[in-house]
From TrEMBL:
Name listed for the protein in its UniProt record: CoA transferase
Any one Pfam family match given in the protein's UniProt record, by short name: CoA_transf_3
Keyword set includes Repeat: no
UniProt keyword list: Transferase
Domain of life: Bacteria
Keyword Heme in record: no
Organism of provenance: Sphingomonas koreensis
An MF annotation (GO) of this entry: CoA-transferase activity
Length: 399
């Protein structure tokens, strides 16, 4: 069986979330991904000392080969250049300028291999006034407007729970890489591609920006809680139930009438205050109070079953434990159990991309640090033991 990216060689210098997720998607598309870490491993691997913090590394680095290189040594630099000489893509998400200071920047590596696509990601880009700002998911959420628009209107802003800036950037980085590969296939020309985390999250603010624009800027509410970010839908909220919470949204008149019928309150559908979307939005507080009064008197599962039967968009607010064991994702192969040699039996996500004609890529666990050292440096590159030691360890001889 041939996967869409079979035959591609990816040199992966990335760390934490955004780069490793992009390269994980490439690996599950069939590419051979060589993950290169410094002596001691990348910082996400080192989080293993803090409880379950090791799981993200295992989630993002399966189906990759593991190699250690010290890029501050001549031998480490030489090894990277040799690996890059016949690679298709190199991926890094260091701060702008780091690779150039190591004398391993895009110009240097692409000169060695004219077919090399050099892909990078950073918080704010390499050429703007923010290029030197340290960037993590939290700081990009803050700078990008996500934190300011998240939370209840009368409460301080809060960050989004998931690492949205990191993973939005990772998805965009994957898209940029595959786009560049497509161009190279058509024209033979390779190019450098870049994704800034700040750029990647902006479009997700579309509903909030609509409210901001239509509400004369600063006069518009900045945080809408669980209501629509543009305050343009009603009902649209998370409502309390007798045993939890349920999210309900009505995006058209049919949905609203169906909800009213399920609630045994069909008169609401013809109430002049609620007959149009505009009037419902104008009476949003009353709508939410009415729906909350009904939901709070019934169990979540009961409400969800009735709303599904009536084709009203809704969903129970699930716990992480429920999500990890989601029957739909497991049935489709989107989630699968693997036995990890370091972390035991864990649940790992597959690629969201499904390619007709081939099954989902069989998952292999993330490798122990440097597990493929001999296979890559000795067998593939022909390095002897002393050269391998000098390329992969600190100069004090410490691995």
């Amino acid at each position: 069986m041939t996967y869409p990216l079979s035959g591609l060689k990816i040199v992966d210098l990335s760390q934490i979330y955004n780069g490793p997720y992009a390269t994980y998607l490439l690996a599950l598309g069939g590419a051979d991904v060589i993950k290169i870490e410094p002596p001691g491993g990348e910082s996400l691997r080192r989080r293993a000392a803090v409880g379950g913090a090791a799981l993200p590394f295992a989630m993002l680095n399966g189906c990759k080969r593991s190699l250690v290189l010290n890029l501050k040594t001549p031998e480490g630099k030489a090894a990277l250049k040799t690996l890059v000489s016949d690679a298709d893509v190199i991926v890094e998400n260091f701060a702008p300028g780091v690779m150039d200071r190591l004398e391993l920047g895009a110009d240097t590596l692409m000169a060695l291999n004219p077919r090399l696509i050099y892909a990078s990601s950073s918080g704010f880009g390499r050429d703007g006034p923010y290029s030197r700002y340290p960037a993590m998911d939290l700081t990009v959420q803050a700078m990008g407007g996500i934190i300011h628009t998240t939370g209840q209107p009368d409460q301080p802003p809060v960050k989004a729970g998931p690492a949205v800036a990191d993973f939005f950037a990772g998805i965009h980085l994957y898209g940029a890489i595959v786009t560049a590969l497509y161009e190279r296939e058509r024209t033979g020309a390779a190019r450098r591609v870049e994704v800034a985390m700040q750029d990647a999250v902006y479009a997700s603010l579309s509903s909030n920006l609509g409210l901001h624009w239509g509400g004369q800027g600063s006069e518009a509410p900045q945080r809408t809680g669980n209501r629509h970010g543009g305050m343009a839908e009603s009902p649209y909220n998370v409502y309390p139930t007798a045993d939890g919470y349920i999210a309900i949204i009505c995006v058209g008149e049919a949905h609203w009438r169906s909800l009213a019928k399920v609630m045994d309150a069909e008169a609401l559908a013809d109430d002049p205050r609620f007959t149009t979307l505009k009037s419902r939005v104008a009476h949003m507080d009353l709508i939410d109070a009415t729906v909350s009064d009904w939901t709070s008197r019934h169990a979540t599962a009961e409400i969800f079953e009735k709303l599904m039967s009536a084709h009203v968009p809704s969903a129970p607010v699930r716990t992480l434990e429920e999500v990890v064991n989601d029957p739909n994702m497991h049935a489709r192969g989107a989630l699968t159990h693997i036995d990890h040699p370091e972390y035991g039996r864990i649940v790992v996500q597959q690629s969201p991309f499904c390619f007709d004609g081939v099954p989902r890529m069989p998952l292999t666990p993330s490798q122990p640090l440097g597990a493929d050292m001999q296979a890559i440096l000795a067998a593939d590159l022909g390095y002897d033991d002393e050269t391998i030691r000098r390329a992969t360890t600190n100069q004090i001889g410490e691995e």
